[in-house]
Amino acid sequence: MSEFRHWAENGDDALRVVLDKAHLILSNTNFRPQFKLLREHANFYVQRIFLTATLPKRLEQRFLAEVCMPPSTKIIRASCNQPHISYIKLTYSTMNTNETRLAIDVANILNSIMGSDRIGIIFCNSWHKADEFGNHFTNGCVSHSQLPEGTKTRNEAEWKRGQKRWMG
Predict the structure, then answer these.
(1) Containing structural domain, residue 10
(2) Distance (Å, whole) CA 59 – CA 86
(3) Any domain includes 117
(4) E strand segments, the chain
(5) Which of 89, 167, 92 is closest to 131 using CA atoms?
(6) Which residues contact residue 7 at a Cβ distance below 8 angstroms, ignoring those fewer than 6 apart?
(7) How far is Cα 118 from Cα 5, in angstroms, rounded to an integer?
(8) 50 and 105 co-located in one domain
(9) Looking at the predicted structure, is the pLDDT value of residue 144 above 70?
């Protein structure tokens, strides 16, 4: 956190701070001292994204208070009781790995073990990467903010109906 403070106070622009397993702010006493340091950075102008699949709705306001966010903060919630959804996280070297080729190879391997009624999505770190993936693998089935709304809606609907197996 002290490195972040130095970085933020010296005028470097941060796009966002992302904290996974954010529910631990309320529940994990081993890390409470480190999580309390978040309060020191509440006044920095940086987007904050807190990820959690298990924060109970009844604790949302307490959570927002703990991280010094206003009570009016928008909370995006998706159902988390979907046992049919699974995730795979791969770690790789960006120095010698073509991300698009890796995603396509992994998706092809998954195609061989996924049931015919299953669909997949590859999360890309930019809309350019999603388009590249779409051009090489998903026949243009992508979803991102740069698409015309009609195209985005159509792609998502076809993917959800299983007409397109993969979306980038």
Answers:
(1) 2-66
(2) 25
(3) yes
(4) 16-19, 47-50, 120-121, 166-167
(5) 167
(6) 14
(7) 45
(8) no
(9) yes
Please check whether residues 103 and 62 belong to one and the same domain. Answer: no
Q: 32 in a domain, yes or no?
A: yes
pLDDT of 115-124, one tens digit each?
A: 788 888 888 8
Q: Tell me the mean pLDDT in the region 122-148.
A: 87
pLDDT higher at 155 or 40: 155
Show which of 66, 86, 118 is a domain's final residue. Answer: 66
Half-sphere exposure of 125 (CA within 13 A, CB side): 4
From 118, 121, 112, select the one nearest 141 (Cα to Cα).
121
- The whole-number pLDDT of residue 14 equals 60
Position 49 in a domain = yes
Number of domains in the chain: 2
List, for residues 27-74, the tens digit of each pLDDT value.
Answer: 766 666 777 777 777 777 777 888 887 777 778 898 888 888 888 888
Pick the more confident residue, 152 or 18.
152
Q: Are residues 163 and 105 in the same domain?
A: yes
Alpha-carbon distance of 22 to 110, in angstroms, equals 30
Label the pairing between strands 120-121 and 166-167: parallel
Helix residue ranges, H only, 14-59: 24-27, 32-40
pTM value is: 0.47
